[in-house]
Amino acid sequence: MLARRLAAEFVGTALLLLAVVGSGIAAQRLSPNDVGLELMENSIATGAALAAIILAVGPMSGAHLNPAVSLADRLLGGLTWRETVAYWVAQVAGGTVGTVVANLMFSLAPVTISTKVRSGPGLWLAEVVATFGLLLVVSAWCAQAAPVWPRSQSAPTSPLPTGSPRQQALPTRR
Predict the structure, then answer these.
(1) What residue ranges define each of the domains in the chain, with the CATH number in brackets?
(2) What does pTM read for this prediction?
(3) Helices in the chain by DSSP H: which ranges?
(4) What is the pLDDT of residues 68-111, one digit of tens each?
(5) Helix, coil or strand: residue 145
């Protein structure tokens, strides 16, 4: 059922942004004079949260959590365009809610505009590498995980072709 998959995408993306933003705020407050330590605190918390979120929502939605992952799944035939756009809406809405909740948890304004310029070739390359890493992790996990529903049109998808040997070997629950 698409609604259930979209709810899982919304919740998973909200939790991921909550973890990313929240751990960034916490790290700044815990280690205000050590940017390297802040980065380590933020990345460890984010990595642990990402693993838990993929385990939690992966069987329901494929744990895309990122529009680029949904696009990859579409290009590999796992989603229709209608589903892809619906995933994007759920991800943007979930990311927005997760960010607002993280700010509120730390008694900040719900929405603030950053004053730091975050752009450049290195940053864009890092985004491409991180997205590729997310695709790899989600694909590998979903290819090995037993699905929650029997394989059908309403079954969750992963960015792997459904005819892959790993997916064909998966047991289905009835």
Answers:
(1) 2-168 (1.20.1080.10)
(2) 0.76
(3) 2-30, 35-61, 67-75, 81-105, 121-144, 165-168
(4) 889 988 998 889 999 999 999 999 999 999 999 999 999 999 99
(5) coil
